[in-house]
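Exercise 3.2. Students should predict the tertiary structure of the chain below and write it as structure tokens, then compare their answer with the key that follows.

Predict this chain's 3D structure.
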Amino acid sequence: KNEVSSLNKELRMLILTDYIKKDLLKIIGTNEVIATMGAVPIFESVRRSSQGQVNLAVLSGQLVIIPKEIMPQVTAIADERKIPYSYKDLENTDYVEISFSGSSKNKVAIITQAFGQGFIQVLVGTKSLLGEGWDSPCINSLILASFVGSFVLSNQMRGRAIRMDQNNTDKVSNIWHL
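Answer key:
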């Protein structure tokens, strides 16, 4: 909430976590108590608390969730890259679960571009997919919701937020480590 109030539509927050917890998709759009850490529970917690103030997405090896309202932009990006996709609505929400054909690299490229262009303000992902080797210099807020055991990996994850952004030379990033 603090980052949203400070940065509004300029927010490019990445929340990195260890697990997807795809089996908890059933809690999305409900009032069930959230009692565990993972991409799905974090997504649902932020979705509930943000009340539509931000466009929120999930990007992991097994799961991609985006707001329905950005489907035209994501469709344009996918069409430009000639990557077929399918999607289904998530009940009781304004979100869809979307699947892209081909390797994980396709979904990462499309969602990263949508994030960089501001169609997504908060991206929840797994450290295994986005923790090492992924680049999105627009990140200006990073939340590490992870049990990082290694100093090197922790610094690599922090590096996601401290990179220079040629499109925003005055960028400042906040890093929150839970």
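Discussion points: The first strand starts at residue 13 and ends at 17. Strands lie at 13-17, 56-59, 64-67, 85-89, 95-100, 122-126, 141-145, 174-177.
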